């Protein structure tokens, strides 16, 4: 009970948290590809990845 009271006292004495958002040129981009019958008796395969990049016509991969 003492630890609960200590936590409540701490939370009551702290200032309210503030989250600030700033605009940027960053966008969420995706590269994807698919293949069909690339191996004997194979089915369609598709894959891709999402990444953050600059706002360009063809977004460069960020290397992550």
β-sheet strand percentage: 25-35%
Chain oligomer state: single chain
Largest sheet: 2 strands, antiparallel
Total count of strands: 2
Helix content: 10-25%
Helix run count:
1
**Structural class computed from helices and strand pairing:** alpha+beta
User: What's the pLDDT, averaged over the residues?
Assistant: 84
How are the strands ordered across the major sheet?
1-2
Query: Alpha-carbon distance between the termini?
Result: 47 Å
Rg over CA atoms, rounded to whole Å, is 24 Å
Query: What is the ordering of alpha helices and beta strands?
Result: HEE
Uncertain residue segments: none
Envelope shape: elongated
Please outline what is shown here.
By secondary structure, this protein is of the alpha+beta class. It contains one helix and two strands, in the order αββ.
Task: Describe the structure in your own words.
The longest helix is centred in the first third of the chain and has 12 residues, at 2-13. With 64 residues, the protein is of the alpha+beta class. It is elongated and about 70 Å long. The protein is built from one helix and two strands.
Map the helices and strands:
Layout: H1 2-13, E1 26-35, E2 45-54
Antiparallel strand pairs: 1-2
Kindly list the characteristics that best describe this protein.
19% helix, 1 helix, two-stranded antiparallel ribbon, 2 strands, 64 residues, alpha+beta
